[in-house]
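Long-time lurker, first post. I've been practising inverse folding by hand and with some scripts of my own, and I keep getting stuck on stretches where the structure tokens seem ambiguous. Below is the full token string for one chain I'm working on. Before anyone asks, I'm not after the true native sequence, just a reasonable design that respects the backbone. If someone could post their per-position residues I'd love to compare against what I wrote down in my notebook.
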């Protein structure tokens, strides 16, 4: 019989089949620049958790964790505005509705939140990321010396040939999104203060002008377009912009799931019980 001592790996290594893995290789498997956790110590991006607790606000910590640098107060103000603007859009939003239904099915709030967040895809929840991509694409052409109007028309028309709607512009519910103006006003202020360069703001407005050209009714940008300008002005990568939006919307999802969980409803479906979906199959 082989004893436990005979099969136990030597200090600093472990055996997997015939191969040996060093301690350094094991510890590097999930190597990270984000968190340094040891007994009695928590550092995030090199900053002691005690210092973060005592002196940092939540949005600054979001920036620190996701982007990896220490933000200025002006950058935090812009990111906070973008996140506040996106927290909720009512139960008619599929992500909110799904979370509310999930909350009546006997699952925990964490699962209800996950249900809602998991619906944030390319169609519902992805417009902000896509708009950032458009802005960066136009910005890339500007860097080669192409004029703003020419670059905007080129990129927008290319996207128009691929999608039905230009993401970030127009709204099925609001003729003019009430979140647009206050967000753009904050970006205007940030440009004056020198916090952001303003090029992405100019691109966003150029897209708006191009889409509205020749129309009696303009197509103003919506919250996704306005927040995309903020994310782009802050040099946030497009995929990370969707992640930050999801973090923001999870606040509204949490609130709605909690409210529904207090209603006493059980297994609440998408329609009142007095109604049934219309049958359209063969008789």
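-- Answer (accepted) --
I ran through it position by position. Result:
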């Amino acid at each position: 019989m082989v004893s436990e001592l005979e099969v136990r790996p030597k200090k600093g290594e472990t055996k997997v089949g015939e191969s040996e893995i060093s301690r350094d290789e094991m510890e590097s498997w999930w190597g990270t620049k984000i968190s340094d956790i040891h007994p009695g110590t928590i550092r995030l991006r090199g900053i002691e958790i005690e210092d973060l607790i005592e002196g940092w606000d939540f949005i600054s910590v979001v920036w620190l964790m996701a982007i990896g640098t220490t933000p200025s107060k002006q950058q935090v103000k812009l990111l906070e505005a973008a996140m506040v603007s996106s927290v909720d859009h009512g139960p008619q939003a599929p992500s909110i509705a799904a979370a509310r239904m999930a909350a009546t099915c006997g699952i925990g709030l964490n699962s209800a939140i996950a249900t809602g967040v998991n619906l944030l895809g390319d169609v519902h929840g992805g417009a902000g990321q896509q708009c950032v991509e458009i802005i960066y694409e136009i910005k890339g052409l500007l860097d080669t010396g192409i004029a703003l109007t020419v670059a905007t028309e080129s990129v927008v028309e290319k996207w128009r040939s691929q999608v039905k709607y230009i993401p970030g512009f127009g709204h099925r519910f609001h003729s003019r999104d009430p979140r647009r103006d206050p967000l753009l006003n904050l970006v205007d202020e940030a440009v004056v203060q020198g916090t952001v360069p303003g090029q992405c703001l100019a691109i966003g407005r150029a897209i708006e002008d191009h889409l509205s050209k020749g129309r009696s009714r303009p197509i103003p940008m919506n919250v996704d377009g306005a927040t995309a300008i903020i994310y782009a002005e802050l040099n946030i990568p497009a995929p990370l912009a969707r992640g930050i939006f999801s973090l923001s919307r999870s606040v509204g999802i949490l609130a709605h799931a909690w409210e529904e969980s207090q209603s006493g409803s059980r297994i609440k479906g998408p329609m009142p019980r007095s109604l049934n979906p219309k049958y359209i199959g063969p008789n």
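A couple of notes from the structure itself: The chain has a mean pLDDT of 92. The two ends are 72 Å apart (CA to CA). Happy to go over any region you disagree with.
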